[in-house]
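Deliverable D5.2: sample structural annotation.
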Amino acid sequence: MESKPDSNELFRLIVDTGESPFKMDYSTPALWMGSCFTENIGSHLKKLKFPAGVNPFGILYNPESIRQSIEILLEGRLFCGGDLRHGNDLWYSFSHHTSYSGPDKDECLRNINGSILTASARLKDSGFLFLTFGTARVYRFRETGRVVSNCHKLPHKYFDHELLKPDEITGPYETLIKRLHDFNPGLKVVFTISPVRHWKDGPTGNLVSKSTLAVAIASLVERFDNVSYFPAYEIVMDELRDYRFYERDMVHINNTGVDYIRKRFMECFVDPGTLPLVKEITAINQGIAHRPFNPSTAEHRKFLQALLEKIDSFEKAVPSADLSTERNEIMKRGNILK
């Protein structure tokens, strides 16, 4: 067997992610919750047609908001009009990202409760719960004393800004993980720390925050057999130590960096036997994204027909996958009747 090159030969450090003993395939539902990094990875898996649910409360950044949201899912608690607030011509919830806000109160509630019902059912059946912490800093609404998931552009005077201590994270999460086990005994919980730096806290403040998250997660991983950690933060800090992997703001990771982390994640968690199907759906997605110079040619119609055949083949191999949107898009482009 050919040995892998060591770090000296590659001229960079390689973060060993290990190989998860628990693997996912197209029959493994999963729920993703947390920061925008969760959106990047979870949404990618959804695009590959894995049965993944992503951020049923919208983007969440701190451990306490994520914990509160999971408890809502465990209880299946639906929201009522009294749970919403109104400001800036929008109805909103302190438990949700601004993406759930809206000018119509009833529609806002429908979106919130529909998402809770769907995510609660998915959590019950999921093989994995992926949680990404972005910051250990929280905003506590002074009127209620409760940590909010989003401040919804309210004045700073309404909130207390705090840095959680490691035990303020681990204690509540120990209780939560036990509840999750009772709710879904087969569930595996995987923590990550977002590699996006919270630069508004300053370099030292960001380091203290990320270190607090790392200490808390390490304690949980050590205590529970069904809890593990994927080192996305370390991959960016120690492997991708170059600003070419960042957006122009020098804080957020660009597509090249995200693609690399996705690759490392897939190597760690996806069953190797599933990779041929991943290759098939990737080819379908690339085909749909292709824009020809001359879409009216017979050659292009032949190309579209081949894509339809690939979709049919993939849906037969993965009965849970729904590619109706992709099929309709192809038929619309080629005016194909089937």
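Annotation notes: The first strand starts at residue 30 and ends at 34. Residues 287 and 307 are 7 Å apart (CA to CA).
The annotation will be released with the project's public dataset once the embargo ends.
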